């Protein structure tokens, strides 16, 4: 498809769970096996590890069987960060390799982070391997986002929206506002902010149609569409989208609102 420019791999992964999940895993789980393998290279003996982590493991097997996650030693924090960096770099490198093998002329658009509160390790790895870093964010604006996080990479917003209760829905949205006019104003403000930010290359609204009145499988039933469930447009929002679209090149060129 000539209109396809690239691929997202995964969506809103919980990267902060990597270390706790590894520590709580069974002894034969691959990540835990690799983590302990790295620790053996660093410390050689379990006594040296205990001294660094302030723990009391009887042996390497005891560590492998342990599911303890509340480790306070300074040495643990250093080893934790080293393994996290290894893990997340392997993830992004593997995804890039897969995409470039089967679609060498398409972009690797990242994994759609959950918001901007990611560790520096995560940003660094994404910027190293992704052609475009992608983030889902339900916020008022992205104009003041720190561009240093992206290490010079372009950024794509995978999801944003605003919703309200005024059309009979039982749940407003992940970013609730007062009424339809405020939805339109919020949309305009967000897109203008992205256009004025040097790193942002696009934003995706979630979603075109309101979610079902009876709710989604996970309970979401948001009034977040450009149209309602009967395909009737929300005039305020569609008018705002048209006005921003007609002027977006001027916003981008000027770099200011």
Write a brief caption for the model.
With 257 residues, the chain is of the alpha/beta class. The protein has eight helices and six strands.
Fold and architecture overview:
- The chain is α/β, with parallel strands linked by helices.
- The chain has a 4-stranded parallel β-sheet.
- Helix 6 (120-129) links the parallel strand 3 (113-114) and strand 4 (133-136).
- The mean pLDDT is 94.
- Helix 5 packs parallel to helix 6 (120-129) and helix 7 runs parallel beside helix 8 (235-254).
- Helix content is 43%, strand content 9%.
- It is built from 8 helices and 6 strands, in the order E-H-H-H-H-H-E-E-H-E-E-H-E-H.
- The longest helix is centred in the middle third of the chain and has 29 residues, at 74-102.
Descriptive key words:
single chain, alpha/beta, four-stranded parallel sheet, elongated
The average pLDDT score comes to 94
How are strands sequenced across the largest beta sheet? 3-4-5-6
Q: Tell me the quaternary state.
A: single chain
Classify the helix fraction into a percent range.
40-55%
The beta-strand count equals: 6
Based on secondary structure, the structural category is: alpha/beta
* Proportion of residues in β-strands: 5-15%
N-to-C SSE string, H for helix and E for strand: EHHHHHEEHEEHEH
Chain-wise SSE layout:
Layout: E1 6-7, H1 18-24, H2 30-43, H3 46-53, H4 60-65, H5 74-102, E2 107-108, E3 113-114, H6 120-129, E4 133-136, E5 155-160, H7 180-196, E6 200-205, H8 235-254
Parallel strand pairs: 1-2, 3-4, 4-5, 5-6
